[in-house]
Amino acid sequence: MHVTYCSRRFLQPITRLAGAAALVLLTGTLAMAQKEATIHNFVGGTDGAYPEASLIADSAGNLYGTTLEGGSSPNCMAGSLGCGTVFELTPPGSGADHWTETILYTFQGQADGESPAAPLVFDDAGNLYGTTLGAGQNNDGVIFELSPPTQTNGAWNETVLYNFTAEVHGSSGLVIDGEGNLFGVSQGGQPPEAYELSPPSTPGGAWTFTVLHLFVAGLGGLNPSGLTLDKAGNLYGTSEIGGSGTGSCRRTHTCGLVFELVRNPIAGDPWNEKVLYNFTGEDGDGATPFSGVVFHGGNNLYGTTADGGDANGDGTVFELSYSGGSWAETTLYEFNSATSGYRPEAGVVFDHEGNLYGTTYFGLDGEGGVYELSPPVEPGSSWTFTSLFNAGCGVGCATSTGLVLGTGNALYGTMMQGGVEGLGSVYGVVP
């Protein structure tokens, strides 16, 4: 049975880019007076289909991403268009007017995995890491590495680093530290887990999988999404449900939370969870955070909630500020379906001027949007909201994935459906 991917909730991770995350403007694709452009339409077949994850970039401005389907392997889930792909988009060269897509890897739906639904992450050597939702040794997905070719025009090489099990599967993506350790959270296990996958001490050895924390029902939160690291190596993320907030939460009895996982000084012992904030869904507060958080401006954390905020529960952008040993939450913006779009499921990114950008699942035209929030000139004043782009399914569909910021403030993202074949697209927006 085919899945309608506009109805799927994207599992948003936080990723680490290799080198400087420099992108180019939409040169040759976006005219000066134009604010947005589609830079690639997925068409199925040997191409990908349904890009359900946000993008990352290398220092040359190439974009990398995954598609849930596509690739035309015959070994995939019944009714699908293939087992998924990893792709690269190269910006236009001198005199060119379009981006060039290269399929780096096509999943076969066997031991190598199937259905990559989360963003990729680079290490310092240029290797790509990611996860799949299905196939693998246990048919519960894998963690994989893609190594770049050793010679010009050679093939990327895939290596399965870990096979998920029924107890630990459905990862929401990875984050990597300076030592090459990978961290993620599982969505499908009972209970969900935060884990670490550490590289071998000798080349060619087995990677070591370690469960760091079990998320149990109640005050500790459930359905964790996304992780980010601080300088001390502690992990931060959000849980869609759980916590002590039991106010106006439209979908659940509890409204979700922001957590920190503190590294245990005793190697091998579980990490300690600290709940930094419990959402209430009342009096303008948010509820149901579907994505993680990001650091900006020192110790401050920023993120979104898909619900809560205004009387309709259209979602929020929030800030958590650390001072004097405690965290304080501020709602920076409450979405309104009539004026700004609603349901921001993805996280946020910042430019060098401190402006914040993100996406809403539903825009003013009903099918997704890109927004900007500019900080106040006077401390304590309101942030300024600007709608940058509202999609129709001729371009794409719901924008539940996050953005990548390029030079000149160009923003790049994916849409799960729409495009010329209805199989998704990659777009760019200039504020």
Give your account of this protein's structure.
The structure is a single chain. The chain has strands at 36-41, 48-49, 56-57, 63-67, 69-70, 85-90, 100-106, 121-122, 128-131, 142-147, 157-163, 171-176, 182-186, 193-198, 208-214, 222-229, 235-241, 257-262, 272-278, 286-287, 294-296, 300-305, 307-308, 316-323, 326-334, 349-350, 356-360, 369-374, 384-390, 404-405, 411-415, 425-429. With 431 residues, it is mainly beta. The chain has one domain: Neuraminidase. The protein has a four-stranded antiparallel β-sheet with strand order 1-32-31-30, with no helix packed on it. Strand 12 (171-176) and strand 13 (182-186) form a beta hairpin.
List keywords for this structure.
globular, Neuraminidase, 431 residues, 38% strand, disordered N terminus, four-stranded antiparallel sheet, mainly beta, 0% helix, 32 strands
Share of helix, binned = under 10%
CATH homologous superfamily grouping: TolB, C-terminal domain
Q: What global shape is seen? A: globular
The CATH topology assignment is: Neuraminidase
Largest sheet: 4 strands, antiparallel
User: Percent of residues in beta strands?
Assistant: 35-45%
Q: How many discrete structural domains? A: 1
Q: Could you report the average pLDDT, rounded to the nearest whole number?
A: 85
Low-confidence stretches: 1-25, 27-33
Question: What is the CATH domain class?
Answer: Mainly Beta
For the biggest β-sheet, the strand order reads 1-32-31-30
CATH architecture: 6 Propeller
Tally of individual helices: 0
Q: Over all CA atoms, what is the radius of gyration?
A: 20 Å
Number of strands: 32
In whole angstroms, how far apart are the ends?
A: 40 Å
Structural class by SSE content:
mainly beta
